[in-house]
């Protein structure tokens, strides 16, 4: 129940605060959040009042948005608790606003997960949509890998990161969401050294269908829920089902799941390995397609198992410093994904066995297909790992240096640029405004940095 004072409070909120409450103000979840905020602590309404945010620097730019490091001028004047603000120009991409809202809605479902970000707040006007999440000062796993001598991680480091990623994906899947964009660039390192996933615009809710004449998400040979080892999981998975079981159904696109045409396989922001000195980033080569599962290329229905495939690609890349199916062209990469066998070097190990089982082309035979994350957690590579206390590990493999946040020197300059940017966005008729077609206007500003 929403107390009437809450409604009154909303009524008297200034417009900009109502923006903070974003998209669907009448939605129950939103109202209950407001009610909770009012009942517990005063809301942090100014958080995404852009006039009160100061930009420190640009953290990164992707296909959809630009991410700034910002801080709140009155609550945190010395920028001790900066956060990431992702800004998407509605005109920058087709359906940019829809994708942005989708990302916000996915984020708003994560509250207290150690390896997933949460939504601090959001703002929308007719030009931009932006939202804030906690800042991850350690960069991403790709950057980190390139800082290693042989551009690969040790088996122990891979074990740690894969374990955390599995926990994050498990949380996604238990909510019925398939992530679909697992790649090292989307795995950020928090101040604590633990990872967090980012970039959810490609994620998707799987359809829920009535259980009658449909099979639950389990082994084709053992299709009783009782056979799922973890009864808690069995209950959860009941909600997410595929229409017919096995390969035959998949090959005939009988899964009832949407085809993969929305999956991004176009160039994305994979950074140029030679440009990893601070702040130098490049969009120069293509990344995501190397992670695409065979069933996506085939256009079959696809589901959670695509994330386990991508986990296999990721594990391989962390181990050998290169992805397993990389070709000279997209066509060749896709051919290799569909037909090629990953090449393993050196002695077989539990890690290579895990990767091999994740890179199984038939999704129904892929590790993780039958019982989700549980099945992967039980693999020999993770024997002895205490999953419950993973988040308590105080010495993760790499800790971001404190001074990696230390960019405050340029604060004033950045502030001027960024505020000017927002000013221009809000006042397109301003004489300074010079929109460049097909180009995010921010690039113009960034090139001046
Ligand atoms: N919370 C954060 N902390 C630190 N850096 C971040 C954070 N969020 C994003 N970034 C940086 O900004 C970059 C772009 O962010 P993101 O991947 O979310 O944008 P995008 O436009 O959706 O990218 P893509 O092209 O992959 O779709 C990231 O690669 C990362 O370097």
TrEMBL record:
Binding-site list for ATP: 86
Family: Belongs to the protein kinase superfamily. AGC Ser/Thr protein kinase family.
Record keywords, A-Z: ATP-binding, Kinase, Nucleotide-binding, Serine/threonine-protein kinase, Transferase
Enzyme Commission number(s) of this protein: 2.7.11.1
Superkingdom of origin organism: Eukaryota
Composition bias, Basic and acidic residues: 271-281
Signal peptide region: none
Disordered as annotated region, ranges: 261-281
Molecular function in Gene Ontology: ATP binding; protein serine/threonine kinase activity
Keyword Metal-binding attached: no
The protein's name: non-specific serine/threonine protein kinase
Catalytic activity: L-threonyl-[protein] + ATP = O-phospho-L-threonyl-[protein] + ADP + H(+); L-seryl-[protein] + ATP = O-phospho-L-seryl-[protein] + ADP + H(+)
EC class: transferase
UniProt keyword annotation of Transferase present: yes
Domain Protein kinase, first and last residues per copy: 53-382
InterPro entries in UniProt: Kinase-like_dom_sf, Prot_kinase_dom, Protein_kinase_ATP_BS, Ser/Thr_kinase_AS
Organism: Olea europaea subsp. europaea
């Amino acid at each position: 129940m929403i107390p009437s004072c809450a409604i009154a409070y909303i009524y008297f909120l200034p417009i900009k605060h109502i923006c903070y409450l974003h998209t669907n103000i009448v939605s129950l979840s939103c109202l209950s959040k407001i009610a909770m905020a009012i009942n517990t602590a005063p809301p942090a309404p100014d958080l995404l009042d852009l006039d009160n945010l100061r930009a420190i620097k640009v953290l990164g730019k992707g296909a959809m948005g630009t991410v700034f490091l910002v801080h709140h001028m009155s609550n945190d004047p010395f920028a001790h608790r900066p956060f990431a603000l992702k800004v998407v120009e509605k005109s920058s991409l087709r359906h940019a606003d829809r994708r942005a809202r989708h990302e916000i809605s996915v984020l708003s479902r994560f509250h207290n997960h150690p390896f997933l970000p949460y939504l601090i707040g959001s703002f929308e006007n007719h030009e931009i949509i932006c939202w804030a999440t906690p800042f991850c000062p350690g960069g991403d796993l790709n950057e980190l890998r390139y800082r290693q001598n042989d551009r690969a991680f040790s088996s122990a480091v891979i074990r740690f990161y894969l374990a955390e990623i599995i926990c994050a994906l498990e949380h996604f899947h238990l909510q019925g969401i398939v992530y679909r964009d697992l790649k090292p660039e989307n795995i950020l390192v928090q101040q604590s050294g633990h990872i967090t996933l980012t970039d959810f615009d490609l994620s998707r809710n799987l359809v829920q269908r009535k259980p009658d004449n449909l099979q639950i998400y389990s082994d084709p040979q053992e299709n009783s829920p009782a056979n799922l080892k973890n009864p808690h999981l069995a209950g959860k998975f009941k909600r997410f089902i595929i229409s017919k079981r096995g390969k035959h159904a998949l090959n005939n696109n009988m899964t009832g799941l949407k085809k993969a045409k929305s999956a991004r396989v176009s160039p994305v922001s994979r950074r140029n390995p030679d440009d990893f000195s601070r702040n130098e980033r490049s969009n120069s080569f293509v990344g995501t397609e190397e992670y695409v599962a065979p069933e996506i290329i085939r256009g079959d229905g696809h589901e959670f198992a695509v994330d386990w495939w991508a986990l296999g690609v990721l594990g391989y890349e962390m181990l050998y410093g290169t992805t397993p199916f990389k070709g000279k062209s997209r066509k060749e990469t896709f051919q290799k994904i569909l037909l090629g066998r990953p090449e393993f070097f050196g002695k077989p190990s539990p890690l290579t066995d895990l990767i091999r089982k994740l890179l199984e082309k038939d999704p129904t035979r892929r590790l993780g297909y039958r019982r989700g994350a549980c099945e992967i957690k039980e693999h020999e590579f993770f024997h002895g790992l205490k999953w419950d206390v993973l988040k308590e590990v105080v010495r993760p493999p790499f800790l971001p240096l404190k001074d990696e946040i230390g960019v405050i020197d340029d604060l004033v300059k950045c502030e001027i640029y960024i505020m000017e940017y927002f000013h221009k966005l809000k006042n397109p008729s301003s004489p300074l405004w010079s929109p460049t077609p097909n180009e995010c206007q921010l690039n113009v500003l960034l090139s001046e940095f």
